[in-house]
Amino acid sequence: MWAPDPPLDKRSPAAPAPGAAARGRPDGGSLASVRAALAGYAGEPALAVLRRWDTSPRGLDENEAQDRLLRFGEGADGSARDGGTRRPVRAAAAPFVVVLICLGLVSALVGDARGTVLICCLAVLSGALRFRQEARSDRAAAALRTMATTTATVLRRAAPGADPVPREVPAEQVVPGDIVLLGPGDVVPADLRLLSSSGLTVDQSALTGESLPAGKHATWAEGPLPAPPAGGPEPDVFGHPRLCLTGTTVVAGTGTAVAVATGTATYVGATGDLPARPPETAFDRGVRAVSWGLVAAMLTALPLVLAAGGALRGDWSRALPTAVAVAVAVTPEMLPLVATALLVRGAAGLSRRQVIVKRLPAVHNLGAMDTLCVDKTGTLTERHLRPACHLDPDGGADPGVLRWARLNALWSVELSGSPDGDAVDEALLRDAGDLAGFEGADVIPFDFTRRRATVLLRPDDPRPRSRAAHVLVTKGAVEDVLDVCVRVRTRDGEVALDAAERARLLAMGDRWAADGVRLLAVATARRAAPARSLSPADERDLTLVGFVGFRDRPDPAAAAAVRALARRGVDLIMITGDHPEVARRVCRDAGLPVSRVVLGRDLAGLDDAELARLAGPATVFARVAPAQKARVVRALRRAGRTVGYLGDGVNDAPALRAADVGVTVAGAAGPARAAADVILARGGLGALEQAVVAGRRTFANTVKYIKIALTSNVGNVASILAAAATLPFPAMPPLQVLVRNVCFDLSQLALVHDRVDESQILRPRTFDHLDLARFVACVGPVGALFDLAVFGLLWRVPAAHGPGGQQLVHTGWFVANLTAQGLAMLLLRSRGRGAPRAAWPVLAAAAAPALCGLLLPFSPLAATLDLRPLPLAALPPLAVVVTGYLAATIGVRALYQRLFGRWL
Ligand SMILES: Nc1ncnc2c1ncn2[C@@H]1O[C@H](COP(=O)(O)OP(=O)(O)OP(=O)(O)O)[C@@H](O)[C@H]1O
């Protein structure tokens, strides 16, 4: 059917494509030109497209593929590009680096040269630390990703003259001109022009938001093709049946296609929206909102303080440093750094427990997850199907049916070339014995929408006459096989499949299902030797010959894990493609309550709101297609839930991608591993419960840090303002405020090691702005009062009125503030009695700021920071104030808990 290979001209670059943008150039092209190029490929005959790319249906040879990889660069995964060029820009554009740069400018304007230099150093340090931290976490994530890379199957030849073989390669190594083989669950690795297909359906929702999957086909014989665009409206590249675009997912069917664009030259590459970029989590949004909120506060405070001090009191020389000090005080410079460090530690802790986190923010999402959708096999059951029965249509044992089913399994696996073993076929082929007598001629592979697999068998018989008598064998879900049958082979001979017979057979399937046995129907038909390849339309006029049944043992650990997750406030919902009664039975065995079973066919009439209302904790979705699984997940997310999805099959890939956090297991099918954010290398639901706890612990420590840092900063702002209004000299030099912040924040990094109160990990939590504002508003003023007490006390020290008196007051505040805030961290970090003790790094970190405060006035930096050693007489009153502050903090903590019923 194909023309012979066109000669491969190694000297010429890739032949001209219909539009420059689609040539796979690493620098990509404009969206309009990419669209036009794709429309051009769709409109051209297949052979012309192949010629353009100097390729053939037999694929590229390995050398040529390597050349093209060098020429066009890696595709699919945008992370490498992002890391190389955008990371430094991102690090420099972080809100707090911007703030520091602004502060440096203001300091320079005030004429504070030392301050300007230090602030600039800090800006560089903060940016560099963030850059390093991001580089480290990106490397860690990349290392984890390699354990679960997205792969694609391409046809490649070892040498130009060799036979093509299907080869699995990392998706980013697909090059223009590669012949890509598509199967259920595959993520499309490049922009593809289809050459042939069989029942191919693609989920494009990740790019278009369209929840219904789109049918794709290459030729008129398979379905109507749109007329070529006539220069009018922009071509609809998603809607075109011949195009499969990068980042979409194959839901059903198979296809062969040629890659016409990779990487930034693809459609999503041109939109700058490569699907590798994960969506922002609720936590990211929270931290970003806080960061920019503080930047806004700083930018507001600066002119206000200036106006108040300068215009009202006419003292501009004091107003400026005060304004700068306020701006510095309000800024938690290390927030992004500590937040990332906490995530990295969370992910590292999980990897020690054999939980691999591919995307750092998934750690928080694990903790925030309040709804977990699970499939059935391999999650609540062991994923080890055992044959339970083989029956004729009357219900009697029949080994002949088992043999047909095994022949179907054998040739489905052999001919479809799918790398992911199917549990049903695996079970059938275990101890299958001799299956001689037939040879596979063609296949329509199993897909989760038809729920059938069909093979065409050729008798392994040398006599020429019998060569014509092929047998079509179909196996699949009972109702879906009955849909294509017209007769039933009973003990009394063949009878027509009428409504009564169909009801009897379905009832038989239900009875076995209620007992936990998944029944598959087997049907056959005699066919003449085919003149063309099989298509789903050939699945008709079959005769039902019986059933094969399988049992899947419940996972013994599942029931305990279900209970543990329920205790932790996670609602479980089962979404399966299996029979409703089998699903109900498995739920019962796992202790999962079932109040209603919703069938896939009933979902079509529901809008998202109705669907989300229906998807309560005791709901089971059965007989759902892969795209419907993803739809349920999306509807739940739209209803405000944080949704996890745990599944291991190729059909779970769209739902894994749609969830806030997609979780799979080590033995899962490749596409599921590629789509998931988290891989449980050992254990199933039980390991997930542990991961949820770890996620919540990380979240709790991050929130703890944010609360403590903001409380301390807001307290300092209040005290600077109050002191400015009452003291006859500037309250605190901006430089000292900055150094104080950095010392304190660095010590807070120890919180990554802190123990967490059980009450904080009992329920799912998300970022709560109101709670944060309330906490800061109630606890911050305690610090401000303490600072004022320090100023008052030091003002009474006679030395303060002599030369260097201001320096003494400033040093006293600096030392006392660092000591008090360091120790107060031990009080703020827990709700008090009954809470777990601080881990030793936290204890050490609590003492560190005090030590810094005491030692810096004796260090060579003292002059730069305007600090001087305190007289001994100043220490006892400071100790009294610090003790008083700690006592006040304990009091406020108790009162706060009584009033609001919570602490952190
Ligand atoms: N290899 C196969 N050949 C034919 N039919 C199959 C095959 N595998 C599964 N089926 C049919 O398709 C139906 C749906 O498949 P399956 O139960 O695996 O869906 P699922 O959503 O992956 O289920 P689970 O929730 O258990 O993971 C099955 O009930 C069975 O009837």
What does the model show?
It comes from Actinomadura miaoliensis. Residues 13-23 have a biased composition (Low complexity). It is an enzyme of class 7 (translocase). It holds the Pfam family Cation_ATPase_C. This protein is of the alpha/beta class and 904 residues long. It has four domains: 20-77 and 150-271, Calcium-transporting ATPase, cytoplasmic transduction domain A; 331-338 and 692-900, Calcium-transporting ATPase, transmembrane domain (Up-down Bundle), CATH 1.20.1110.10; 355-380 and 555-682, HAD superfamily/HAD-like (Rossmann fold), CATH 3.40.50.1000; 384-553, Calcium-transporting ATPase, cytoplasmic domain N, CATH 3.40.1110.10. It contains 30 helices and 24 strands. Strands 1, 2, 3, 4, 5, 6, 7 and 8 form an eight-stranded mixed beta sheet that branches. Strands 9-24-23-22-10-19-21-20 form an eight-stranded mixed beta sheet, with helices on both faces. Helix 5 (95-110) packs antiparallel against helix 10 (316-330), helix 19 packs across helix 20 and helix 26 packs antiparallel against helix 30 (875-900). The longest helix has 42 residues, at 685-726. The N and C termini lie far apart (69 Å). The structure holds adenosine-5'-triphosphate.
